[in-house]
Amino acid sequence: MTLPGLAPRAGYGGIVGVWAAAAVIAVVIGIVAPAPWRAAWMTVGMAACLILAFVVQLVQGNSPGFLRRVAASTLGAFIVMGLIGLGLGLSSMFS
Fold it and tell me: Residue 90: which of 41, 9, 28, 30 has the closest Cα?
């Protein structure tokens, strides 16, 4: 007698969580970092989001689609941080 496998959990919560963390990191960088250093700190924040994406997907323990979910998390974080960085750059240009 074999036990049926458990239904895999959806990975969308982890993906959106990394996107939210990217938004928080970008806003904190925009508030705390001086204007000439914002771009350098954004790359550090993006690296933190990449590590966070790996950790979140590893903790979920669902191996099918692992790379796709990590890629979606990282690409979404890149887009979120890029848009917030664009807004910070435009605001610093016109202030």
Answer: 30
Mean pLDDT by 10 residues, the chain (95 residues): 62 90 97 93 97 93 88 97 95 86
Q: List Cβ neighbours of 54 (8 Å cut-off, separation of 6 or more).
A: 70
In whole angstroms, how far apart are CA 64 and each of 37, 39, 58? 39, 35, 11
**Could you give the CA distance from residue 85 to residue 63 in angstroms, rounded to a whole number?**
33
Could you state, in order of their start, the residue ranges of all structural domains in the chain?
12-93
pTM of the model: 0.85
